[in-house]
Amino acid sequence: MTPPPLYVTVPLAGMLVSLALPAAKPGLARRAASFFSAAALLLSALALIPESGDAAPSGVLDAFFTSGGIPAAGPAAAAIQLAFLACMLAPFPKQTALTPGRYYAIMLAAQAATGGATETHGWTAFFFWTASAAAPYLALRACGLKARAFAAFNGISCLLLAAATLGLDGGQPWPYILLIIAALIRTASFPMHWWLRSSAQDAPAPLSALLCGPFAASGLYLLACTASHPALQPLPQWLAWAMLAPVCFGAFAALAKRGMSAGLAFASSAHCAAFSFAAALGTPAALQAALLGCTAQALAPAMALLSSSRPEEERPFFSALALAGAPFTATFAGLFLCAALAFRAGPWLALVLITALVMNAAACCAAASKPAGAAQNAQPSSKLVLALLAAAILLGGLFPPLPPGAELPF
């Protein structure tokens, strides 16, 4: 079994520390969780430093392809870690039945498990994939939510991953098909979107940000690392065009929703479907778009949900711009590549995709301009969190270099 990296084991150690902290000191529990989460982010950033001047490879890509990594894969994983750090710094949701130590222990466990699921393979990846779904489920249950749809869909995703792990060494296409289905469930693409809508709309703001952001982004990361495998051809081409329907559905549903969390859940589903379209195409430029989508999907929903609990006059409009895909953001860079890829395949298909993305951008702006509501923990969130997320979204959207040999599709 592949040993997990340090930025996975450090949050696990933090989970044990958080469990040992007394319930009477919530500030101490949050500081400890923030320290371990920041340490995991630093370690994940250090892991990106190449040893010989080349791009640092990704463990998942190496495991599935044995052909080296993609330059944007490491930053996408680091963005997922940064989104978890933002959730750690958010105020403790007092309406839960959890003590602060146990709440932050669950959040740290989810961070470690998601990092392990994206950077390991085989049965180690299955263990972390299951744990990354179990941690948010425990938090949802502690908030008094039934979370039946979350348990059903993500339980099926774990079973599919287990079945795929059994056959990965046989060279057959069916294990990779199961991996794609498991990834699509986690990204909440239509018609498997019900778990995100039912879970995120009633959960506290940190949990909603966790589910709409890094949790869904981890499924997109797995899809980007799987869909272009040679054993699957030509299935991903059909899958790519099939993802246009979830994009349109998510955009229409997001426009129809009035609540902050419900609208954001459908908008996140539409964005994940658009980036899944790029991942399924499998070209280097398409994989770049999908990995930019991982960055955007991890950071932008967290920023929108955490900033929505601030007073209206202090609520930064940048969160709406980041969600909608304003220029010079990671969302814009990824969606721009998706639209260019669709236009090369067919102008009419590109028109459908761009129309749905414009509608989704309008829905994102409308959703991000609304307060989170009483059920979303209306305490002021840290300005440091919002500054970190804003900087990361800008830095991630300045068109990072394409993989070697890749050409822009226009």
Number of helices: 18
Separation, N- and C-terminal Cα atoms: 43 Å
In angstroms, what is the radius of gyration? 19 Å
Helical proportion, percent range: over 70%
Folded structure, characterized:
This protein is an all-alpha fold and 410 residues long. It has one domain (6-396). Helices cover 70% and strands 0% of the residues. It has helices spanning 6-20, 26-46, 59-65, 73-89, 100-119, 123-142, 148-167, 174-186, 194-200, 205-226, 235-242, 244-256, 260-281, 284-307, 318-324, 330-345, 347-368, 383-396. The radius of gyration is 19 Å and the shape is globular.
Task: Describe the structure concisely.
With 410 residues, the chain is mostly helical. It contains 18 helices and no strands.
Give the topology.
Layout: H1 6-20, H2 26-46, H3 59-65, H4 73-89, H5 100-119, H6 123-142, H7 148-167, H8 174-186, H9 194-200, H10 205-226, H11 235-242, H12 244-256, H13 260-281, H14 284-307, H15 318-324, H16 330-345, H17 347-368, H18 383-396
Name the descriptors.
70% helix, mainly alpha, globular, 410 residues
